[in-house]
Amino acid sequence: MIDLVKNLAAATRRTKASVIRELLKITNKPEIISFAGGLPAPATFPAGYLAEMAAHLLREHSRVALQYGPTEGLPELKEQIIKFLREEEGIEVQPTNILITTASQQALDLVGRTFIDPQNPVLVELPSYIGGLQVFSSYGAQLIGVRADDDGLLVDDLEAKLQNLRREEEHYKFVYIVPDFQNPSGVTLTAQRRRDLIRVSEQYDVLLVEDSPYRQIRFEGEAPRMLYKLDTTHNVVSLFTFSKTLAPGLRLGFIVAHEQIIQKMAIQKQSLDLCTSSLSQLLAAEFLKSGLFKTHVQEIKTLYKGKKDAMLRALQRYMPVEEGVSWTKPQGGLFLWLRLPAGMNADELFHEALKQNVAYVIGSAFHCDGSGQNTMRLNFSYPSEEQIDEGIKRLANVVKSRLKARA
Which in 70, 174, 177, 369 has the greatest CB count within 10 A? Predict the structure, then answer.
């Protein structure tokens, strides 16, 4: 029999299937209440506006909308992004600081292509976004986990690991962090830790890759400043997406960084897709320009806050807190993080939960070192409040049954 895989590239062999994508195949049944995906609520998609605007663009601007565009992105969208960053984040950038991407997953791939050589140390949070771990592993990175708590990454632990790497003369490349409403934990890096992180990045000359897909979806509290805003040495690369604030189907994101980094990434992008969809870019540009974006995001925040509160109420009502079950209380985003008592295995519990028609994502999938087996990620943006209550009730019954069996 012919060996069909003998000629596969090393990067292809290193790339593993996404645990979340594989789980979604199992949980995509109508009888299952799923907290597994990271899907925005379809009710938030501005379908009517996009339909009308797409028709207008195709009638009046088809020469641009249906044509190839510059690899770096259309100037119409860059202009609106510059205005958005100035008004919302107090960040001043030029068009040369922006690269439009085919959503933030391509941005992560460009980070990997641009910076990682096989065996390069890359520092990531414990836990960290599985899509980032998957990309960096495919380029042969040596992933080093940095501990975190409910206030985000522990900068002291990061500094200790950088010291060890420097002492061993290892050429570390960057720190990857999701500072706002982190996927998967839902926690936000505090203002003080952001300042400490900037100090460490300068002291150890290590790049910070700031992934910010959820920052605009804050429904409580004050937002700490972005790492890009705090940085004074061009040592931060920031990744953004419209998937959570407009529609994931548009596959649209962007990178903000020093123009020399953007130039190198643009060259890499040329070999991937030449350019991001011109129609999607024009739709996003018009949506930002219309002034509807702020109103739209506010509606998303109102909807998701209600769902988050419903999940917190259900957890408090049904989960055996007295037995050591705990969870994070996010001020925004799409997820929260549930911790089971030490010794309980959420990987094993998953199959019992499926039998009760409820699903989640196992926490160990987000840990580059295989730890976190007593944790799970719960999504509250997609299910209804009624489904959230019923689903948490089912999940709590599974946890209680396992605790009873252990006793």
Answer: 177
Residue span of the structural domain in which 257 resides: 67-289
Nearest to 206 by CA among 121, 108, 112: 121
3-state secondary structure of 149: strand
Average confidence (pLDDT) over 290-316: 97
Residue 18 in domain = yes
Find the helix packing angle between 75-89 and 278-290, rounded to 10°: 40
Q: Which residue has the higher pLDDT, 150 or 29?
A: 150
**Residue-wise over 394-407: b if at least 16 C-beta within 10 A, else e?**
bbbebbeebbeeee
Instruction: Show the tokens assigned to 263.
Output: 């130039």
DSSP state at residue 248: G
Distance between terminal CA atoms of the chain?
Answer: 52
Write down the pLDDT at residue 29.
79
- Pick the closest to residue 241 from 103, 98, 93 (CA basis): 103
Tell me the CA distances in angstroms from 329 to 125, 181, 188, 335, 355, one per residue in order.
18, 10, 10, 9, 28
Amino acid in the structure at residue 225: R
Among candidate residues 289, 310, 327, the one where a domain is terminated: 289
Task: Write down the pLDDT at residue 18.
Answer: 62
pLDDT reported for residue 406: 81
Mean local confidence (pLDDT), 122-145:
97
- Strand 358-359 relative to strand 142-149: parallel, antiparallel, unpaired? unpaired
The answer for residues whose C-beta is within 8 angstroms of residue 94's C-beta and 6 or more apart is: 82, 259
Residue 217, pLDDT score: 98
> pLDDT band at 26, cuts 50/70/90?
low
